[in-house]
Amino acid sequence: MKPNILQTPIDYLKGVGPGRADLLRKELGIHTYQDLLNFFPNRYLDKTRFYKISSLEKTSAEVQIVGKITHLKTVEQKRGKRLVADFVDDTGKMELVWFRGHKWIRENLKINTPYVIFGKTNWFNGMFSMPHPEMELVEEYKKQLRTAMQPVYPSTELLAKKGVSNRMINKIMQQLFLETNGKFYDTLTTGIREELKLIPKAEALFNVHFPKSQELLAKAQFRLKFEELFYIQLQLLIKNMLQKKKIKGFVFDQIGENFGNFYKEHLPFELTNAQKRVIKEIRSDLGSGAQMNRLLQGDVGSGKTIVALMSMLIALDNGFQACLMAPTEILSIQHYQGLTELCSELNISIYLLTGSTRTKKRREIHEKLENGEINILIGTHALLEDKVKFKNLGLAIIDEQHRFGVAQRSKLWKKNHLPPHILVMTATPIPRTLAMSLYGDLDISVIDELPPGRKPIKTVHRYDSNRLKVFRFIKEEIQKGRQIYIVYPLIQESEKMDYKDLMDGYESIAREFPDNQISIVHGQMKPADKDYEMDRFVRGETDIMVATTVIEVGVNVPNASVMIIESAERFGLSQLHQLRGRVGRGAEQSFCILMTGHKLSNDSKTRLQTMVSTNDGFEIAEVDLKLRGPGDMMGTQQSGVLNLKIADIVKDNDILKTARHHALQILKEDPDLALEKNAVLKYTYAQLVKHKNIWNYIS
């Protein structure tokens, strides 16, 4: 088969034509024969069995029956009419019903001619009926290229409206296989195919669209899923290798006065083994001569900041500057305050740059940054502006990675003649499967233990009917000298409703706690007012902070020991986990109380049970991934890479691991894919990189 036949525009396939081609392009992204071939069914109907009318069960299941239409009539109803046909086989009678398209159906139906019908049955007035059945004359049915397992393809409302049905997709798919003779190049090496007992590519594609049996369908799906995940992993691993080979990094070979002095004299607590391990991994990267690209994952409160500071001190000891970029002003101020305090005994100049830094101060920062007087610059997106020029930036740290797009990160690369080392930090634990696919080109470090002396937060779920008991508990905690957070959900679409929820809550709290000082923080406040209220709470002037989720990231108040989350069912798992992490910062026992009404969906129940049963962010992230899927978890900037056609990153976790293992083995033995036996991988990979779309080449 000529390879370029698959790049033929879909308009030229028999049975498509310009109108349908336009719909397929707009609605399903199918532009070429290749796209159609890689448009996979999302489920299958088992049509291995023909039912008799007398043996039908009242289950509204989808069934297939052979019989004849003996009579047609139109029945008036409240709105419009319905067309009803008597359909019989040798065991009984049922009705076929149509609520629209009567004229066309009446003209095309043949009386007393054998049909195969398929659809859902209803039991009504002592008789079975089937609304809008799929129908095919028995003689046509016998001619078709068909299989017992009928594929069902994804569709849209517009396609259904315009008559591009599942049956039509099936027909053009048959046409595609006829025109190409079903011959497709294999894209995996003989070694991989033999080791994993994979069926050939052509057989897999045929059986995924026209499965001959359940067994062959399973083999076809495994083969195609493995291939998709294998090439994603190959791509990520090659990218990582090239970065290390091509992109030279500054060599930080000195561990000098700043690092040594801080470690020996000013470290406020003993590092955990996990922190020591991660610092070692970072030191090794910084001294390797290749540019570091490392993702540091650590749960809320696991001590990422101290690791970040010690990494920056290594940069300073080698004559370089460092910067730390955070997604919000509040968080960058907190980093600034925390690091300034930690470095108070060291001779280091640390500055803060955010959107609200005044012009005069900005000029001073720009000047001192260029002449090297500033050692560490902390800030928000403001760091990315072209005016911000460093004398010698050696290390850039990005906090809460998922809040920044790739384009924003790459601006940091251009802040020196060689790109600075990059350390990306996140407190949103990313499940291993997702990390392997999204950040497979980054090296990953994990801080998986909490600093000593931290007590695990106790989490409970309480219904609104227990509110008085909860209030009593709050009073007891305040009497012990503790502070309380009460958080209300934020639904962007309805700020008025959120505000009302928050104000109603605030009023009822004020009534219940007349003798206590209360702070309130929400998105509609001016930044200065918000900071003022936050500051009062941080200084302990107020006992209770009533807020929307603006406090989700950042704020560190060791004395706050209770987090109450109102309407907890309206929050996602990772958000609940982040909010819970606002307490438990001190040595006292902390509590998180999830308040909800009695009506809860299954997903909400799962989320609440997960929160109550574990504090482990990685375990929570795994559940979140299962509930929400990868696209939602990562946001649009990241999920583009996971535009998977057939594999599912959650369900196919094991296939993903196998694919990564094989990709690693091959690159270890043959990093340039130069060996003859890997020629097919090299060719396919080249096509992939050219088209930027994994499935545009694999056929």
Global mean pLDDT: 86
Low-confidence stretches: 633-641, 693-699
Largest sheet: 7 strands, mixed
Oligomer designation = single chain
Cα-based radius of gyration, to the nearest Å: 32 Å
- How many strands appear in the DSSP assignment? 22
Tell me the number of helical segments per DSSP (H or I, 4 or more residues long): 24
Q: Tell me the structural class.
A: alpha/beta
Main-sheet strand order equals 6-7-4-3-2-5-8
> So what's the overall shape?
globular
**Share of helical residues:** 40-55%
Tell me the distance between the termini: 11 Å
Q: What fraction of residues sit in β-strands?
A: 15-25%
InterPro entries: ATP-dep_DNA_helicase_RecG, DEAD/DEAH_box_helicase_dom, Helicase_ATP-bd, Helicase_C-like, NA-bd_OB-fold, P-loop_NTPase, RecG/Mfd, RecG_dom3_C
Family: Belongs to the helicase family. RecG subfamily.
GO molecular function: DNA helicase activity; hydrolase activity
Pfam families: DEAD, Helicase_C, RecG_dom3_C, RecG_wedge
3D structure, described in words:
With 699 residues, the protein is of the alpha/beta class. Helices cover 42% and strands 18% of the residues. It contains 24 helices and 22 strands. It has a seven-stranded mixed β-sheet with strand order 6-7-4-3-2-5-8. Helix 10 runs antiparallel to helix 12 and helix 21 crosses helix 22. It is globular, with a radius of gyration of 32 Å. It starts with 16 loop residues before the first helix and ends in an 8-residue tail after the last helix. The C terminus is likely disordered. It catalyses: Couples ATP hydrolysis with the unwinding of duplex DNA by translocating in the 3'-5' direction; ATP + H2O = ADP + phosphate + H(+). This is ATP-dependent DNA helicase RecG. One of its GO terms (molecular function) is hydrolase activity. InterPro entries: ATP-dep_DNA_helicase_RecG, DEAD/DEAH_box_helicase_dom, Helicase_ATP-bd, Helicase_C-like, NA-bd_OB-fold, P-loop_NTPase, RecG/Mfd, RecG_dom3_C. It holds the Pfam family RecG_dom3_C.
